Amino acid sequence: MKLMFASDIHGSLPATERVLELFAKSGAQWLVILGDVLNHGPRNALPEGYAPAQVADLLNAQAGRIIAVRGNCDSEVDQMLLCFPMTAPWQQILMENQRLFLTHGHLFGPENLPALNAGDVLVYGHTHLPVAEKRGEVYHFNPGSVSIPKGGFKASYGILDDNVLRVIALNDQSIIAQMTINP
């Protein structure tokens, strides 16, 4: 199974257009959105091309191929604009020998882990910082932010393909971080 991950869109139309362009080319079965879809939030500056209604329209065209979780900036009002469910605080994708625990990162995250088994993958956003590493017996993966990157990193997204998780720069496609997960 090939998956694409995007987090912290924060209503950026150019970032959404780029994500969907890459998703169409990626061959991924699902686009996993890790929260903070439409609203920029009170602590962030407006992202480039802030247009939440247009972002919703573009994402709705792919609704049948999106798995999403709620971020700390998402609300029921946002859900009213979106045709795919995005108010669950977490989701799981079950693979043959492990699971991907999908969350935004503000409720569950590296400092507040859910109950996970050895080899499971915590997939989260929220920090806007890319991460691909094993901590103890659990893999941690954060694709960074597609619209408001932090820590000097480039805007980025993630791909899972053949048990390799990669964080990839949105614009130049350079690999920012990567790890192999053992099935």
TrEMBL record:
<dbReference type="GO" id="GO:0016787">
    <property type="term" value="F:hydrolase activity"/>
</dbReference>
<dbReference type="InterPro" id="IPR020935">
    <property type="entry name" value="PdiEstase_YfcE_CS"/>
</dbReference>
<comment type="similarity">
    <text>Belongs to the metallophosphoesterase superfamily. YfcE family.</text>
</comment>
<dbReference type="InterPro" id="IPR024654">
    <property type="entry name" value="Calcineurin-like_PHP_lpxH"/>
</dbReference>
<keyword id="KW-0479">Metal-binding</keyword>
<dbReference type="InterPro" id="IPR000979">
    <property type="entry name" value="Phosphodiesterase_MJ0936/Vps29"/>
</dbReference>
<feature type="domain" description="Calcineurin-like phosphoesterase">
    <location>
        <begin position="1"/>
        <end position="161"/>
    </location>
</feature>
<protein>
    <recommendedName>
        <fullName>Phosphoesterase</fullName>
        <ecNumber>3.1.4.-</ecNumber>
    </recommendedName>
</protein>
<dbReference type="InterPro" id="IPR029052">
    <property type="entry name" value="Metallo-depent_PP-like"/>
</dbReference>
<keyword id="KW-0378">Hydrolase</keyword>
<dbReference type="Pfam" id="PF12850">
    <property type="entry name" value="Metallophos_2"/>
</dbReference>
<dbReference type="InterPro" id="IPR041802">
    <property type="entry name" value="MPP_YfcE"/>
</dbReference>
